[in-house]
Structures are given as C-alpha cells and as structure tokens.
Amino acid sequence: MSSADVFELVGVAAGPAEDPILRGVDLTVAANGVTVLAGPSGAGKSTLLRLLNRLDDPVAGEIRWRGRALTEWEPTDLRRQVAMVFQRAPVFPGSVLDNLRVASPDVSESRAEHVLDHVGLPTDLLDHDATTLSGGEAQRMCVARALLTEPAVLLADEPTAALDRAARATVEELGRSLADSGVAVIWVSHDTDQLRRLADHVIVLAGGSVLATGHLDELDASDDPLVRQSVGAPSP
Q1: Which of 110, 164, 187, 225 keeps 20 to 30 A from 28, CA to CA?
Q2: pLDDT tens across 10-32, in order?
Q3: Which is nearest to 14 in space by CA: 210, 222, 227, 232?
Q4: Which helix (H) or strand (E) holds 219?
C-alpha cells in the first residue's frame, strides 16, 4: 500500500462536545496488515474505529484517507471501501443469500458461494435461514457480506468477544488471512493473548489519548506500565 492509504488524524476530538471521549488525537494508522487498538475500557477504541468510516464524525480536527478528508467522501462510497463488522453480528430475517444481498443487491449465487467459501463457510448454507446460524457462522457471514464490496480496509470492533473459543480461533484465522491477502484489518480487542497472536501494529489508547504506537517488541520494552499491561508484555 502507498503512503496515501494510511489514515491520518490531526487534532481529533470525538464524542459529546462537552466531554469528548477522544481528545486532541494526532495519529497515523497503518492501512496494511493487522492493526490492533488496545487499552482499558473507556479509552476510546471503538469511538476511534467508528470515525474511520464515518459512523461518527469528530467534533474537532480532521481525518484523512487516501489524501482526502473523510468529509469529502460520500459516506456510502467510503463504507464500501472501509467496511466494518461488529461485536454482535447483525443478522437480518431471511436466507444467508438475502443477508449477503443487503450489501450487494445484485450479487449472483455463484459470487455469493465464492465469498462464503472465502470465509470458510459451506456454500450449501446459502439457502439456509440466517437466524439459525451459530455465533461464529453469523460473524463469518457478516465478514462475507462486508467483502462483497471489495473493501480496502476492514474495521473489526471486538468481533470475537461474544464467541466461544473454537469460533474465536476461526474468526482470528479469517482476519489474519484477509490481512495477508491485502485487506488492511483494524481490530479492537481487550484480549491481550489475541492481540499478541494477531497484531502487526498496535495503538494503545488511554483516557481518550494515544499512549503509544508501534510493534509489539517496541511496546514490550516500554517504560510505561499501562502500555506493557495493555499489550500483555511478558514479565521482565
């Protein structure tokens, strides 16, 4: 990816104007590999993620992607390129194919089967009632739905928090394989073991500010105990 593909945040504040969740954030977010947003509850991780595809807008500052302010993008166009999956997968009434067509109304069955196979789901699920899927299957279906728009970036807000261990491992493997195939993944996690399995880059937030950024080996050596705790650094 070129340098223009990164997200650049300058002086960003977000949340209620009278008491912002994020405050004066200056940050460059890599748009390649897996970037994990870490830090304690209430640090602003999900808020930051939502800003990147304009589910929320900042109350101050500017965010740029591909050299353009996000406010210059039509939200629908932006979200086709910067897709998002959530902690609880939104499943709509109808078949799995009906759910995929929420993102791409004209998708053919062959294309739908291809994207199911890409996320590790059997293609014979296409005609199944989507509400009968397990949590892990539903989450992978939602990733498949996001992939139909061929995004450059996938935002993942604690996508495995509600899943059992086996489903969590499957979704982690999917995230890793997407990143390896060229889709940048930006992933919020409270799970330091998961962070250490997935992260190519880490951003640590605390109190609405950026505490540290870097690779795990850099953050493991931090003098700040909160940074070390946030990334699950081994004891010295």
Answers
A1: 225
A2: 999 999 989 999 999 999 998 88
A3: 210
A4: helix 216-220
CATH fit for domain 3-89+151-230, picks 3.40.50.300, 3.40.1080.10, 3.30.1300.10, 3.40.710.10: 3.40.50.300
Give residue limits of the domains in the chain: 3-89+151-230
Cα distance between residue 34 and residue 172, in whole Å: 11
Task: Give residues with Cβ within 8 angstroms of 154, minimum separation 6.
Answer: 83, 84, 85, 143, 146, 147, 175, 178, 183, 184, 185, 186
DSSP assignment string, 65-128: ETTEEGGGS-HHHHHHHEEEE-SS----SSBHHHHHHHH-TT--HHHHHHHHHHTT--GGGGGS
pLDDT above 50: residue 125? yes
The type of residue at 14 is: A
Spatial distance between the Cα atoms of 150 and 154, rounded to a whole number of angstroms: 10
CA distance 171 to 141: 11
**Which is nearest to 69 in space by CA: 7, 23, 24?**
7
Distance between CA atoms of residues 34 and 75, nearest Å:
23
